[in-house]
Amino acid sequence: MSRTNFDTLLEAGCHFGHLKRKWNPAMAPYIFMEKNGIHIIDLHKTVVKIDEAAEALKNIAKSGRKILFVATKKQAKPVVAEKATSINMPYVIERWPGGMLTNFATIRKAVKKMANIDKLTADGTYANLSKREALQISRQRAKLEKNLGSVADLTRLPAALFVVDVLKEQIAVREANRLGIPVFGIVDTNSNPDNVDFVIPANDDANKSIEVILEACCEAIAEGIEERKAERVDTEAAGEEKAEAASARVEEEAAEEAETSAEE
């Protein structure tokens, strides 16, 4: 059963593309028609593509790896922050830090710097600083939090990128392509789908369109996380059973040896 359907996507306005003069010819396979100078996206194909992307995202989450969500456009920020947080995944909704992926070690240093400021503040090291110095450090901490706070738990490169607007976030897409990190993206009619591994053809400007697609994908990720937890519990239970069986076998052998010794 599909995670979305034609009517839900239609109601959310996922079918509205851009003006014909702004289109990218590579999106032709996903365009149903032109109406009043605007391209209309084929939502039947969108339903299929959402299912394909959701299944792949579920498998990534099930493997225990992270998916980095990227959306710096105003209308997408709150939705992405909410959905990514609900499944404990990192996200970037402010300016994309150049080299976020290709120079990941430097980004990690900045995150550690933020943690170090917190540590020194907590232990009273900064207590004797002048007001000016304390204010400078406070501003530096706030800037780091704004730009990198949402990726503080990302200790290694993400297994995948989920991008809301691949044209606006083309730097992030390029970095992922360079490193061989798969890209999942909502791709509008003005964008190039060639650099996206899992294309979701849809309106990437309307808040409702972004929300309904993210809802389906994040639900799949949540399922993958839960399945991973269930498998871990089963593995632990199987290990305990094996240990109990081994212990019982040792006790049985010891009893047999004792019985044999008594007979002798």
Descriptive account of the structure:
The protein folds into 2 domains: 1-97 and 159-264, Rossmann fold (3-Layer(aba) Sandwich); 102-156, Helix Hairpins, CATH 1.10.287. The longest helix has 57 residues, at 207-263. The chain has helices at residues 6-11, 43-62, 77-86, 104-122, 131-148, 170-179, 207-263; strands at 16-19, 31-35, 38-41, 67-70, 91-92, 160-163, 183-187, 198-201. The model has no long low-confidence stretch (mean pLDDT 90). The chain has a 5-stranded parallel β-sheet with strand order 5-4-6-7-8, sandwiched between helices. It is built from 7 helices and 8 strands. With 264 residues, the protein is α/β, with parallel strands linked by helices. Helix 3 (77-86) runs parallel beside helix 7 (207-263).
CATH architecture classification of the largest domain: 3-Layer(aba) Sandwich
Alpha-carbon distance between the two ends: 70 Å
The percentage helix is 40-55%
Which CATH class of the largest domain is shown?
Alpha Beta
Q: pLDDT average, as an integer?
A: 90
How many helices does DSSP assign? 7
| Radius of gyration of CA atoms, rounded to a whole number | 26 Å
| Main sheet attributes: strand count, strand direction, barrel closure | 5 strands, parallel
Number of strands: 8
Provide the domain count: 2
Low-confidence sequence ranges = none
Shape: flat
CATH topology description of the largest domain: Rossmann fold
Q: What amount of the residues lies in strands?
A: 5-15%
